[in-house]
Specification:
2 copies of one chain form a homodimer.
Chain A lengths: L1 E2 L2 E4 L2 E3 L4 H8 L2 E2 L2 H11 L4 H4 L3 E5 L1 H9 L5 E6 L7 H17 L2 E6 L1 H7 L5 H17 L7 E5 L4 H12 L4 H8 L7 H11 L4 H6 L5 E6 L3 H15 L5 E5 L26 H9 L9 H7 L7 H10 L3 H12 L5 H26 L11
Parallel strand pairs in A: 6-7, 6-9, 7-8, 9-10
Antiparallel strand pairs in A: 1-2, 2-3, 4-5, 5-10
Helix pairs in contact in A: 6-7, 7-17, 8-10, 9-12, 10-12, 13-17, 15-17
């Protein structure tokens, strides 16, 4: 969707996103307290990303829980467009997905859309896109997914299976539907026109591999919603499969002013491969909700609601609810100044990335164990 | 193309086809005497399908011969849409292709477009289409292609390699180009929109497998021409490959009145799996260029030019040029009546099919040896 002040599509997120409005306009359901209490029963303490409403919306998540409570296993499906290195914004849905895998014992099918990234970006070679499939997979594995229950695949390298599913989806989707859902035109290349069928295919992959209908839950940022709404959920009943359920997250903001963290503004994105000194520099240069001068800030207080630094604590880097509340209060009161706040965050991020990079390095030894091949 | 009295597209051939006009409208070159003499130098006696102008048109076949004469090997590429059993009309290009393989020592890449047939025909299941991939492959092998130089592949089962090539083609082809070339609309499913990229992919497959640019020659009925003209030949230079060359054949007519042999009129098509009594019945029921009564025919003579029975002798079943000329003369003179002429043809076809079916049966033992898999 695209209107007054913000744009949310699979390729672009701009402006201050009004998430309540996305729920209304996309026709999704809010992740309400009742549903969260139900999750808590199964997971113990509610995950930070649920508690803080980073995941805030869903489709049929209640149905997934119904199925689970009746003893039926569900599968998780999420993915990544491998056009470059992973940044910490990408990790948000993966962290929750890992948590769900652990707590619900679910298999994960993880799609690397190297075809889409190549088709979409005129300057990207197929070789580069495939290269980042494997680079990014190291970050996926570093999130702690379970070997034997986690199946990563490249659209290009796993096409033997995917293409056969995708043509079944494609047979039921007209060009005009794809144009309406994604805003494509006759100038769009035919690979992009077909790609939604490839992205829908993994919704049915667990069912095909198991030979029985398997419920699928897709945790992903809400900009991907129209793939599932307009294609996979439309086609599922025609092919005899369950409609895939979704959990929608907000976007981790970039370190600049407004918008999600994006590879198109690399100085405002923290990459998982960034060395500590680069992290420090990026965080210390971040846009904040601070005032023009120290005096003003002491007098008026900071504005955490528009501050990416505050959002980083809130969404990812301060697990203690009380502590994050204190950051909010001391910022608002003018006690906490931006320099100190950023220095503390930089320290948190460096520690987080040091751990991640250690696991990422280890993942190189068993990368292929996580990949689906035929 | 579609105009006054006849239609020729990849999905439909109707009416009396004016082949001279197709050459002009498609912008191809006639296979002239000079070129045929050049072929003869390499093949010895000119093949019946060249001599009788069943193959009548080309693109860049002279360039293929240039390359060959300079010592550069070329590859052959042709294919089949496996929507049902093979009929003898399908065999025409395969017979010439086998001859070219034998005389020029060329590798053959043979595409089974099970994806296209499934996507195009609402009533066809993917399973059935894939089933006929392997059924039809038996007929290909029965034509005498050389093991180790002949690589058959199913679009679905070989997608691991094909899809990666097809996305490279697709990136350079807009939806409006595909609409213009194939007459597709926004109601066309997105699989059909993408499929031309899959059909173009094998033009570049030999080059990719060999790691060097390989000239490719495509012998096929002329209704397939717009695939190569509108897609593969457009994209080739952008991807750094040679443009594929083509040899175009006429259509073997059906046994009814007008039009090519077509599975949509099964009583007028002779299938390679038809038993002898069915062949006899179909041939004896054929439409002919004969007159309403024997008396009239004795007086006026028959009309071989509009007679499928005569065309079968001419295109396939009477290799002796003198003998085929005699059939023509004795038909025109009213000496040869249709009953006798059909009975003789039925005998020829039965013998042809008995041989073919024997080789087809033997092919079952080494079917997989001819298939490309990854």
């Amino acid at each position: 969707m695209s209107n007054e002040g913000f744009i949310v599509t699979p390729w672009e997120v701009r402006g201050e996103v009004d998430y309540e409005r996305l729920i209304r306009e996309f026709g999704t359901q809010p992740l309400d307290e009742e549903l969260l209490r139900r999750v808590e029963k199964h997971t113990g303490t509610l995950h930070l990303l649920f508690r803080r409403k980073v995941f805030f919306s869903h489709r049929d998540f209640d149905w997934i829980l119904d199925k689970y409570e009746k003893g039926e296993e569900f599968a998780l499906y999420t993915g990544r467009g491998p056009s470059g290195h992973t940044h910490i914004g990408h990790l948000v849905p993966w962290i929750l997905t890992q948590h769900l895998q652990e707590k619900f014992g679910a298999e994960l099918y993880f799609q690397m859309t190297d075809d889409e990234k190549y088709l979409h970006d005129p300057s990207l070679s197929l070789k580069t896109s495939i290269h980042f499939t494997y680079e990014n997979a190291l970050d996926v594995i570093a999130c702690g997914f379970e070997k034997g229950k986690t199946f990563i695949f490249s659209d290009i390298h796993y096409a033997k299976t995917l293409y056969g599913i995708a043509v079944q989806v494609a047979k039921h989707i007209t060009t005009s539907t794809i144009k309406a859902v994604f805003g494509f035109t006759d100038s769009t290349n035919i690979g992009m026109i077909f790609f939604p069928a490839i992205q829908a295919a993994p919704c049915f992959l667990p069912s095909i591999l198991k030979g029985k209908n398997v419920p699928v839950l897709i945790p992903a940022a809400i900009d991907q919603d129209n793939y599932w709404r307009g294609v996979a959920r439309e086609v599922a009943p025609k092919l005899g499969f369950y409609k895939p359920a979704q959990l929608h997250s907000k976007f981790l903001p970039g370190l600049g002013r407004g918008g999600k963290m994006s590879a198109s503004e690399p100085e405002t994105a923290i990459y998982t491969v960034d060395p500590p000194e680069v992290v420090t520099k990026k965080v210390m240069n971040a846009y904040t909700g601070g005032r023009a001068t120290v005096e003003e800030q002491r007098k008026l207080g900071g504005q955490p609601e528009i501050c990416p630094v505050y959002h980083y604590y809130h969404m990812l880097f301060e697990p203690d609810d009380k502590a994050v509340g204190e950051i909010h209060i001391s910022c608002r009161s003018g006690n906490l100044l931006c320099g100190e706040c950023k220095a503390r965050l930089a320290e948190r991020v460096r520690r987080f990335l040091a751990d991640h990079q250690r696991r990422r390095e280890k993942a190189k030894d068993h990368l292929q164990d996580y990949f689906l091949k035929d």
